[in-house]
């Protein structure tokens, strides 16, 4: 298993946006979609603003991998559905990092987006 370096965690975790390009079934990557990313401890998480109906999210679940670009870090990642009870910590991270965009934060911590949470694991 590959892990994030401290520099990568800081760069991606501090980035305002992350561009995610989920892999298609043929191995190519979709066009990147800008989304928010948060760091909780030594893990990075993303959520679909549209919940499970988000196009990038549906493709991400099918393939389980993507290419990301954030904070000067470009990596291929595995996309993992969290099994730990980290939802409250992720909610807090969204509130803290993006609180100035209050009208957008509310949907990111609402049940549909919470159900569409993925952990980014470097490949």
From TrEMBL:
<dbReference type="InterPro" id="IPR012349">
    <property type="entry name" value="Split_barrel_FMN-bd"/>
</dbReference>
<dbReference type="InterPro" id="IPR016888">
    <property type="entry name" value="UCP028498"/>
</dbReference>
<protein>
    <submittedName>
        <fullName>DUF2255 family protein</fullName>
    </submittedName>
</protein>
<dbReference type="Pfam" id="PF10012">
    <property type="entry name" value="DUF2255"/>
</dbReference>
